[in-house]
Design a protein that fits this description.
alpha+beta, Immunoglobulin-like, about 625 residues
Length: about 625
């Protein structure tokens, strides 16, 4: 019995010791179970992730470093289960704790780099070898020029002159979802990686500018709004990438940090709006899918209303997931139009498929999906996919232009075929009409011959009367012209021969080209009717010469028949008629009459010898310019 009693007591003691040991190990795991990041020269950079970093959510936003160092608060830190922790609750501040085992024998200079460029406010608490902390502030809330390194990422030089294991604290507060991606880097590695990264940025944004300029030139050449919308869409996506990468803060608004909370939101809004407008115009949605057209217009209105709400509550900008809805709508519209046999839509669908893939990867990164590998490709996936989308959509635009050209060629061919058919129909109708006219003519001739035989005497009398009328008309015209050409004729009588502009132009045409037509530009003798009455247009070079060109009446501002009469009066008076007299006869201002009178007298003086013994009709020799 005593042995059994001792055995029972021993068993109880072991049990109690085991419970104490388990509790102690559990407590020690919580206190010292965090993995330590060691400074090693053979590892030029290291991302602090998983169990290397603990986090604490401060929902009150009032905790200080002194509070966090207290055991009661320090015990509330939780080990990070994701690759990198995130601030899921935007209204809370987040504290992060990590340990670095320094190495004073390291031959390299080391820095801490915060890889997420959109963090609004970072407080870094750096310990020294005595355990005292210094505070440093970073983030998009501070002007860019205050950074230690003029780089898009937030960096801090580490003091590595000790071999101790030091615990660092970071307080992070941001109005949008960000990741606490903290990297320990060698400065030489940082410089190499930064140069390569900026080179890639230059290539990426250069491609955005090149594609935008190309489509802008297409807009100026073709005047189709779809190219302008695509230019604005590309620039909006480029601005969003610059805002996300911190490039915009570095180069566009380095002294306006408040704009960092709005820049990416504006860029996303404009990219959605211009992307939908481009979809409407490029795919001809209004005519090919009216219901989708109304749906897209409704989406544009709703997205605009949400953007207005974001202006009053900037935290709403962090709901980037909403951009998936316009993207899916544009992608689905492209699939629908492509299934309706619009071939350029295939490149559009392929391009937006890549863009959708990049967007999905970004969403998975925001949700901290464990199976998704973290690296440059996944981090810049949206940029890579956007480049592919730009190339494929450019192919779609080119294919659209080729499709329009083929349609134009087919339309022209149809027009030519129709013209040929119309020409054949016209010839057939002309032949039929000619046959009918000939038949009717024969009938009329037969009837006319009968009537002519019956009325032969009347016809002879009519012929005699007609002859007498013609002779009388000729005599009257001669008498009238002779009267007009006399010195005493007034404008009313002169107007009987040249009553209007048409008569004057006809006379000038007969006078000007009495010896035949020859183009003044290329000497071609073939012509067509010009644009103005009695003008002639060269069939070779297309030069159109008006009937008053190279005459005394060129650039005349008075009625042509009055100009004729003025020239006649000047000639008939041998230039002695005054401008006052001309003004009285023609009812034209004296200054105008003086100007034209001077011009005509000058020509009369220059051609005095040529007009000698020219008679009453010599005034017409003054009309044409001398060769």
């Amino acid at each position: 019995m005593p042995d059994r009693h001792r055995l029972s007591e021993l068993y109880s003691s072991v049990r109690i010791f085991t419970l104490i040991l388990i509790f102690t190990l559990s407590l020690s795991h919580r206190l010292i179970g965090q993995e330590v990041v060691a400074v090693r020269d053979h590892m030029p950079h290291h991302i602090i992730s998983y169990g290397e970093i603990d986090y604490l959510e401060d929902k009150s936003n009032v905790l200080t470093l002194e509070d966090v160092l207290k055991p009661s608060i320090a015990s509330k830190f939780k080990p990070n289960r994701n690759y990198t922790p995130k601030n899921y609750n935007l209204s809370s501040a987040y504290w992060y704790r990590f340990k670095i085992k320094h190495n004073s024998l390291s031959r390299k200079n080391w820095i801490l780099e915060f890889f997420d460029q959109s963090i609004h406010n970072i407080s870094l608490y750096v310990p020294d070898s005595l355990g005292k902390y210094s505070t440093f502030y970073f983030g998009t809330a501070y002007p860019f020029g205050e950074r230690q390194y003029q780089h898009k990422n937030f960096t801090f030089d580490l003091n590595n002159d000790t071999d101790k294991e030091l615990t660092y604290y970071v307080r992070l507060k941001s109005s949008q979802s960000v990741g606490a991606i903290i990297v320990l880097r060698d400065v030489h590695w940082f410089i190499k990686y930064a140069l390569n990264e900026y080179l890639i940025f230059g290539l990426f944004y250069g491609m955005v500018i090149v594609f935008s300029l190309y489509n802008l030139l297409m807009f100026f050449a073709i005047k189709q709004r779809q190219y302008l919308y695509y230019v604005l869409y590309n620039l909006s996506i480029g601005l969003y990438e610059m805002s996300s990468d911190g490039i915009a803060f570095q180069y566009l608004w380095p002294n306006q940090p408040w704009w960092n909370e709005y820049g990416f939101g504006f860029a996303l809004f404009f990219s959605s709006i211009f992307g939908l407008l481009f979809t409407l115009n490029f795919l001809y949605v209004k005519s090919k899918a009216p219901k989708l057209y109304r749906l897209i217009i409704g989406m544009i209105i709703l997205r605009s209303l949400f953007f207005i709400l974001c202006l009053f509550n900037k935290n709403l900008f962090s709901y980037k997931l909403i951009e998936l809805v316009p993207l899916l709508l544009a992608w689905g519209t492209g699939i629908y139009i492509f299934r309706n046999r619009y071939r350029p839509a295939r490149f559009f669908v392929m391009g937006y498929s890549f863009l959708l893939l990049g967007f999905v990867i970004k969403i998975l990164l925001l949700l901290n999906i464990r199976w998704l590998p973290y690296g440059p490709f996944t981090y810049y996936s949206l940029s890579f996919c956007f480049v592919i989308e730009m190339i494929l959509v450019s192919f779609a635009i080119g294919d659209s232009v080729r499709t329009l050209r083929r349609k134009k060629d087919k339309a022209q061919k149809r027009i030519i075929d129709q013209l040929q058919i119309n020409e054949k129909l016209k010839d057939t109708l002309n032949r039929e009409l000619s046959s009918l006219v000939d038949e009717r003519t024969r009938e009329l001739v037969d009837k006319a011959s009968i009537i002519e035989k019956q009325n032969e005497e009347i016809s002879m009398m009519n012929a005699m009367l007609e002859k007498d009328n013609q002779e009388l008309h000729t005599n009257i015209e001669k008498v009238t012209r002779a009267r007009v050409m006399s010195h005493e004729v007034d404008f009313a009588e002169f107007s009987k021969i040249y009553p209007d502009r048409e008569t004057c132009f006809k006379y000038l045409s007969e006078l000007k080209w009495s010896k035949g037509y020859a183009c003044r530009k290329c000497s071609n003798e073939q012509y067509l009717t010009g644009y103005l009455p009695y003008s002639r247009r060269c069939t070779k070079c297309g030069y159109d010469e008006s009937v008053i060109a190279y005459t005394l009446f060129q650039n005349s501002r008075i009625p042509i028949n009055k100009a004729f009469y003025m020239l006649f009066l000047v000639y008939s008076t041998k230039g002695k008629i005054s401008s006052h007299k001309l003004s009285e006869l023609l009812l034209i201002r004296q200054s105008t009459c003086w100007s034209y009178n001077s011009k005509m007298q000058k020509v009369l003086e220059e051609r005095k010898k040529e007009l000698k013994n020219a008679g009453d009709g010599g005034w017409s020799k003054l009309v044409l310019e001398s060769n």
